[in-house]
Structure formats: C-alpha cells, structure tokens
C-alpha cells in the first residue's frame, strides 16, 4: 500500500510541473520576440543615423577642401566633362605655385585629388607647349588619393568666376548610401579676380613665360668640397644638380692647377692624381653643361712629407742622459711637410738594440705618432727606435735610448709608465730605485705629498700610487710648463739599527684639459650635414659627459652628438648671404672647460671661390677678433666670361675684386660678397 500511494503522488506532481513549464516557455518566447524586434529596429535606426552623419561629414570635408582651393586661387579654374583621366568630372584649379585636380568617378562614387608643382611643367614631346607631366600611375584618376566617398553626383558651375562684381564658384554635390541620400549646393565667393580656362589650354597660356623661366638649373653641390690627399691617390666626387622644372642636368668635370699629365678627372667625377704631381693645391670644378655660370668647386690639398722628428716625452732621470734598466719611455714623432693633415701624421715604429742578454727591448704600445718603449734590463745597452712615414716610406728618423746603471746611486723615484704626469680622475704608479735596483725590501718606505697646489685633491698611498680627483679645477698652473708643481717626497730608511733615512723627490704635473675639434672648424652646406670629431686631452673622461649647446645665427641649424663626434646640419636653403654660428662643447665637472667650434655656412646656390672651404666669408659683427686668427690668408682668382673675380681673405678683411673693383662684406647681405658672386656669376 505504501508503495502504491507513493507512486500516485509522483505522477500527480510530475503532471503539474510539465504544464507550468510549457506556460513559462510560451511567455519567454513572446518577450524574446519583442526584445529582438526592438534591437533590430534600434539597429536600423542607428545605422541610418550613422550613414547620415558619415555623408554629412564627407560633404563638409569636400566643401572645406573646395573652399581652400578656390577661394584664394590666383590664376583660374577649368572644368572638363570629357572623361579625361577616367573622371566623369575633372575640376582643375591653377594656384600660384601648384596645380590641383579634383576628379569625380561615378562608378566608384568617389572624388579623388591630386596636386602638382608648377615647376614640374615640361614641354610636350616634339613641341614647345608646356603642361604638367603625370606619372604613368597618375594617368588614371582611381590611383589618386581619395578625397570623399558616397558621392553620387558632382557638378560645378564656373560661368561666374570672371564676374567683375560678384565672382562666384558653385558646386552641387549629391551623396547616397543604400536608401539614404543627401544633397548640398555650395557657393564660394572668390577673393581674387581669376579666369576660366579650357582644359585643353597649355600651361604657358595660363602662366605665361613663368613656366619657361622655371625650367632652369639653379645650383650645384659638390661633395666632398675639401680633400686632403696624396700623390697617386684616387678621389671620387659626387654632385647634386639643383633645378626648377626639367632642364638638362648634365655636368662637366675639370681640374685646374695640376702640373702632371697623369693628373686627370673623368666625366663621372673620379680624380686620379699622378705620382709625379708637383702641385700642392688643385681645384676640381663641376660645371653645368647648359649654363656655364652655374658651377661648384672643391679644394684638393696634396700632402708631401719632408721630415720626421722624434722627441722623448719621458726625460732621462739619471744625469739627464741615461735611463734605468727596465724603464718605460714614451716617444713622439712629428711629421713635417706640405699640407700634412692629422690623418697623414702616421708613422710606423720599429726597434733594435745591441743588448745580448736579459729582457729584450720592445715597443709596448704604438699609436699614429707616439709609442711606449720598454728599454730592457741590460745596463750599458743602446736602444734605437725608428719612425718611418706611412705616407712616404723614404722619409724616416731614428732615436737612441741609452741604458746605464754605472752612475746610479742613492734613492730615485721613477714613474712606472715613464711619464711624471697625471690626469684628472686618473692614477700614476711610482716606483723607488736604490743604488740602481728596484729591490727595496730592505728599506722602510714612506710616501707623501709634499706640495699640492690643488688643495688636497691629489693623494698617494703607501705603495706609491698617486690618484687625482675628477673635480680639480681647470688651471694651467698645474701643467708641466710650470716645473711640475705637485711634489712627491719619498723617505727610505734601511731596516738596521741607527740607519740614517735618505730622501728623494719627484715633481708631477697635471696637464690642462683641452677640448679640440678635428678639423678646427666646420663648413656646412645649407641643406646638408657635416661631421666633426671631438678630442679630449688632460682628463680621463667618458664622451657621454660632453654636452653640446648651440648658438646659431642661421635658421634650421641642428647639432647631433654621438659618442666621439658631432653631426652639424642646416636645413635652411634660402639665405641670400653667408652666415655663421658656433658650437660649444662643455665638460661637466668643477671648473668647467669648454671649447668653441666656428661653424661656417655656404648656401647651395652660391659659389664663394675655391678658398671658400678654408675661409668662408664672415662679418665683423658676427665673429669676434679672436676668431680671425684661425682663418688662414687665401687669395683665389677666377676668370669667367672675361671677368676676373679675385676673392681675398686675411685676418683683417674679407673682400672681392671684380675686374679690380673692391666689394667689402656686409653682414646684412645687401652688398655681401656671396650675394655679389651669386648675381655676377
């Protein structure tokens, strides 16, 4: 009974639950359909509103662009519906320096846009009529940038642009997307009096002779413009022809000042210098074929070595003649000759000796013009060092180092690297010699700084290592020329009862900090850049501590600092006269040291003579008197079309003689040399 009763209860409950579930599903279905209908309706509404906004935005952008083009046009407009460039409607607006095209293509419902410079005008093939030459991919309007989409119709009324009283340009534009449409009529009142042209008219009808005048060579930039080289070398020059329009950009290369038939330059700018060339300076000229008054010049300096001199930077400590056995000696070579630049100072170092036993003398370290020599440990030996010019191996010099211990007695102090000088933020290891021996184990040594004009910024430890603070002020009083003002005292006492102490002293110098640039000036052609190396002496320094500030006198001047050099650039190309600026390199430590680099500028279209690379044209109000000493005297004469131009520069004046008539430089540029040359040549 219990089992049957329970079964009935489960059947009754199960039936009630199924009915309730069906009713719930039905209600949910009705609500879901209603919500879904609302979503679909809202989506359609939002989509239509969004399309309306998009079309109005496109219309506003298109009208704004038309306003900018047409309102201020200085020449005129043309209207074409013949399908030129694949456009159903082509509107051409002729500005002062540009020609703008608007093309509507009905198949894509798009307005396209293209702008060309008037300077791109070129004569048609086989004729003299001018038009703007389009590239192959520009001949189809669909390859132009898109200006507006959804444009279903586009028409312009240009009949009233020539109205004297009320010049008006009108454009009717229609937009459509799916079922949405939008139309607007836009009228523009013109500010200038312009003309209506037929699209078939040539540009010389629109612009007159200006198109022909714009088709010309305006200048030449020759690179490099200053070369230090040697006989037998080959230099490749490159040129950039500046032009307006499409003139013939061919050039002619020639070299002047050569004295050897083996010195020649090819048509592609490769200069070959004869091995028998005796000239010291030559000039390379790159001249326009179509206008011989447009050219650029480069100065070529030929190096010639005459002598190599060797000097010892480490003075002999014994009797001013002999070195200790085991000493390190630094030698320096100076290369002399004609036009020897820093790159040509290199020498090859070699060593020989009559030493038969012990450590052999050797060159420990060699640079372009210095070397450190280990003299060996054999007394009474003679060490011979030879420096041979890399530029001319026939020129060499020798230097003899004498090693002796016979006259060495008493206590001596010796710098381990052979140089009794220290750099800021550097260290110097000193050694003691007693009776010619570096074995001092039988003595008690006491090292101390006896005299320190830096005020306690130089220190020495018990092992004879000297250190110098980084922030020692910049002061020439610490230099070697002032008789090594930092005095080190050494007291040696033999380790026996009642021994009498003996003393020795050594003077140490701190070189003045020097910042130098290589080369010592920079010539920047406006529109290009130039690199200058930074060199620091007298300080152990990371190049990251060098900061560069500029004080430019020209627009567009920029300075980029790398690890060991500066890149100077100038984007300005429209100056009418040569201007100048300076770059200051600063070391960031106490007693700031700085060096200034004169920076000279040359405009791209102005020639200032072959001396220009060495001595550009400064003005008294731009350069202080101190700078004039850095400018070498130069005189350059050139005869062009029967007129003699003589450009003269010295420390007191800069001027130009044109057939004997003198023109002084004027910093305002109204009567500047560069301006005169630009007009005269």
How does this model look, in words?
The strands form twelve sheets. Strands 13, 16, 19, 20, 21, 23 and 24 form a seven-stranded mixed beta sheet that branches. Strands 7-4-3-2-1-11 form a six-stranded mixed beta sheet. The model is unreliable at 1-15, 604-633 and 665-681 (pLDDT under 50). The chain is mostly beta strands and 681 residues long. It is elongated. Strand 1 and strand 2 (89-94) form a beta hairpin. It has five helices and 46 strands. 14% of the residues lie in helices and 43% in strands. 28% of the residues are buried. It starts with a helix and ends with a helix.
- What number is the mean pLDDT? 76
Q: Taking Cα atoms only, what radius of gyration do you get, to the nearest Å?
A: 42 Å
Largest sheet: 7 strands, mixed
Regions with little confidence, pLDDT below 50 for 5+ residues: 1-15, 604-633, 665-681
Number of strands: 46
How many helix segments? 5
| Class by SSE composition | mainly beta
């Amino acid at each position: 009974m219990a089992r049957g009763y329970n079964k009935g209860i489960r059947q009754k409950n199960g039936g009630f639950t199924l009915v309730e579930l069906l009713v719930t599903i039905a209600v949910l279905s009705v609500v879901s359909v209603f919500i879904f209908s609302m979503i679909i309706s809202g989506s359609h509404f939002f989509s239509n509103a969004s399309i309306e906004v998009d079309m109005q935005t496109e219309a506003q952008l298109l009208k704004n662009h038309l306003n900018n083009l047409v309102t201020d046009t200085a020449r005129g407009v043309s209207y074409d519906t013949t399908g030129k460039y694949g456009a159903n409607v082509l509107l051409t607006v002729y500005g002062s320096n540009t020609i703008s095209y608007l093309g509507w293509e009905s198949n894509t419902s798009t307005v396209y846009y293209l702008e060309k410079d008037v300077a791109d005008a070129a004569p048609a093939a086989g004729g003299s009529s001018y038009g703007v030459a389009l590239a192959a991919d520009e001949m189809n309007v669909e390859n132009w940038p898109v200006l507006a989409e959804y444009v279903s119709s586009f028409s312009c009324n240009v009949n009233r642009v020539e109205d004297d009283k009320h010049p008006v340009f009108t454009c009717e534009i229609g937009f459509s997307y799916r079922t949405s449409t939008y139309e607007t009529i836009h009228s523009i009142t013109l500010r200038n009096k312009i003309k209506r042209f037929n699209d078939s008219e040539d540009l010389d009808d629109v612009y007159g002779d200006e198109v022909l005048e714009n088709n010309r060579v305006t200048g030449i930039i020759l690179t490099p413009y200053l070369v230090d080289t040697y006989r037998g070398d080959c230099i490749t020059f490159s040129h950039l022809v500046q032009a307006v329009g499409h003139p013939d950009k061919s050039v002619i290369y020639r070299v002047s000042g050569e004295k050897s038939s083996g010195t020649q330059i090819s048509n592609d700018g490769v200069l070959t210098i004869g091995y028998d060339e005796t000239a010291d300076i030559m000039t390379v000229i790159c001249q326009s074929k179509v206008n011989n008054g447009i050219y650029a010049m480069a100065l070529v300096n030929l190096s010639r070595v005459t002598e190599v001199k060797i000097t010892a930077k480490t003075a002999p400590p014994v009797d001013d003649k002999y070195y200790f056995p085991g000493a390190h000696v630094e030698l320096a070579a100076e290369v002399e000759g004609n036009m020897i630049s820093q790159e040509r100072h290199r020498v090859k170092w070699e060593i020989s000796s009559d030493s038969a036993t012990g450590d052999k003398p050797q060159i420990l370290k060699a640079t372009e013009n210095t070397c450190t020599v280990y003299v060996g440990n054999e007394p009474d030996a003679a060490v011979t060092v030879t420096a041979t010019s890399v530029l001319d191996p026939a020129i060499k010099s020798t230097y003899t180092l004498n090693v002796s211990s016979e006259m060495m007695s008493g206590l001596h102090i010796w710098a381990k690297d052979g140089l009794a000088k220290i750099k800021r933020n550097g260290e110097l290891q000193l050694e003691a010699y007693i009776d010619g021996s570096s074995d001092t184990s039988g003595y008690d040594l006491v090292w101390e700084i006896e005299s320190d004009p830096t005020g306690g910024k130089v220190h020495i430890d018990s092992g004879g290592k000297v250190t110098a603070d980084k922030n020692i002020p910049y002061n020439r009083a610490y230099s070697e020329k002032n008789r090594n003002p930092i005095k080190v005292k050494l007291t040696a006492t033999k380790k026996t009862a009642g021994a009498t102490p003996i003393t020795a002293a050594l003077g140490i110098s701190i070189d003045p900090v020097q910042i130098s640039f290589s080369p010592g000036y920079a010539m920047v052609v406006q529109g290009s850049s130039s690199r200058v190396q930074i060199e620091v002496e007298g300080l152990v320094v990371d190049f990251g501590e060098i900061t560069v500030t500029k004080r430019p006198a020209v627009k567009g001047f920029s300075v980029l600092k790398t690890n060991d050099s500066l890149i100077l650039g100038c984007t300005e190309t429209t100056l009418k006269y040569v201007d100048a600026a300076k770059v200051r390199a600063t070391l960031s430590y106490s007693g700031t040291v700085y060096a200034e680099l004169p920076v000279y500028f040359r405009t791209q279209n102005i020639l200032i003579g072959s001396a220009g690379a060495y001595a550009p044209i400064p003005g008294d109000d731009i350069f202080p008197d101190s700078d004039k000493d850095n400018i070498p005297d130069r005189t350059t004469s050139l005869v062009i079309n029967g007129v003699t131009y003589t450009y003269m520069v010295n420390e007191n004046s800069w001027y130009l003689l044109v057939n004997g008539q003198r023109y002084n430089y004027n910093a305002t540029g109204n009567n500047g040399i560069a301006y005169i040359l630009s007009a005269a040549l």
